[in-house]
Write a structure and sequence with these properties.
The protein is of the alpha/beta class. 53% of the residues lie in helices and 13% in strands. It folds into two domains: 159 residues, NAD(P)-binding Rossmann-like Domain (Rossmann fold, 3-Layer(aba) Sandwich); 119 residues, N-(1-d-carboxylethyl)-l-norvaline Dehydrogenase, domain 2, CATH 1.10.1040. Helix 9 crosses helix 12. The chain has a six-stranded parallel beta sheet, sandwiched between helices. Strands 7-8-9 form a three-stranded mixed beta sheet.
Length: 294
């Protein structure tokens, strides 16, 4: 798809806004849809066309991307009332960038192909800052031809595009990635609460951990966010809770019991129940800080 590529983007949450601005910067004619219209209207002043429904957003597009919260939201924009799939022209490409269950991705793949559409399963790694900077990593599941068609579109938003195999491969690796991240976040939250209840100098202890064998990129990030206690959203806590649940189910289908995912998901769910769901995932530490053993 060359200079005639027209793009639609469905979903303007934490990640979608940055993606939209990078698509616009790259010169792609762009139409957006968001369930909450106010988030879309903010982008209208940038020269981006805002559609009333997913179908209206997709009807003239050759590439339609979605960046949504979960399976339910994805199903609604693709197959629901005024859904995008029914409005897309044969030969156009569906690009699903959300973190979804492999079961739903397989169902979406079948629905798209039945309508003569191509599909690329391309969830992303990175958070709000990477989306705004055009530095996302796309984990792509697709046939080579479909991925080639959308590579120029993905390139303007990305640091790397990994072709992992057929449709569904991206969903699998994204859940593996998020499971590992979530387990580290909750483990570090518990470690930090432990440090704070000792006589240790917190800053010295954290510098040791960051530089030692336990250190990792996510530990560096979480140490900063959890000690500052601001919890500005880079990755919504409620979405990580959802992702761990999807990961457990996807692994179980491959006869793998993610035993460490069970307490991880439980801690995120508890944080969500206590009102931290709309904060950054690092806010999970507040649950541990408040807990007292008998």
């Amino acid at each position: 798809m060359g200079t005639g590529t027209r793009v639609a983007l469905l979903g303007l949450g934490t990640m979608g806004r940055g993606m939209a601005l990078n698509l616009l910067k790259a010169g792609f004619p762009l139409t957006v849809y968001n369930r909450t219209r106010a988030k879309a209207d903010v982008l209208a002043v940038e020269g981006i066309r805002v559609a009333e429904t997913p179908a209206r957003a997709a009807e003239e597009a050759t590439v339609v991307l979605a960046m949504l919260a979960d399976d339910e939201a994805s199903r609604a924009v693709w197959l629901g009332t005024d859904g995008a799939l029914a409005a897309m022209r044969p030969g156009s490409v569906v690009v699903e960038c959300s973190t979804l269950s492999p079961d739903w991705v397989a169902e979406l793949d079948a629905a798209a192909r039945a309508r003569g559409l191509q599909i690329v399963d391309a969830p992303v790694t990175g958070s709000r800052a990477q989306a705004e900077a055009g530095q996302l990593n796309f984990l792509a599941g697709a046939d080579a031809q479909s991925l080639d068609k959308v590579t120029p579109v993905l390139r303007c938003m990305s640091k790397e595009i990994l072709h992992l195999g057929p449709v569904g491969s991206g969903a699998q690796l994204k859940l593996i990635n998020n499971f590992l991240c979530a387990a580290q976040v909750t483990s570090f939250a518990e470690a930090l609460a432990w440090i704070e209840r000792t006589g240790l100098n917190r800053e010295v202890a954290l510098e040791f951990l960051k530089k030692g064998a336990a250190g990792s990129g996510i530990l560096y990030t979480m140490a900063d966010r959890m000690t500052k206690r601001t919890y500005e959203v880079n990755f919504l806590l409620r979405l990580m809770a959802k992702d761990v649940g999807y990961a457990r189910a996807a692994a179980a289908r491959r006869s793998v019991d993610l035993s460490t995912a069970k307490p991880t998901e439980a801690l995120f769910r508890k944080a969500q129940d206590l009102g931290h769901g709309e904060q950054d995932m690092s806010a999970v530490v507040e649950v541990v800080r408040q807990e007292r053993t008998a």
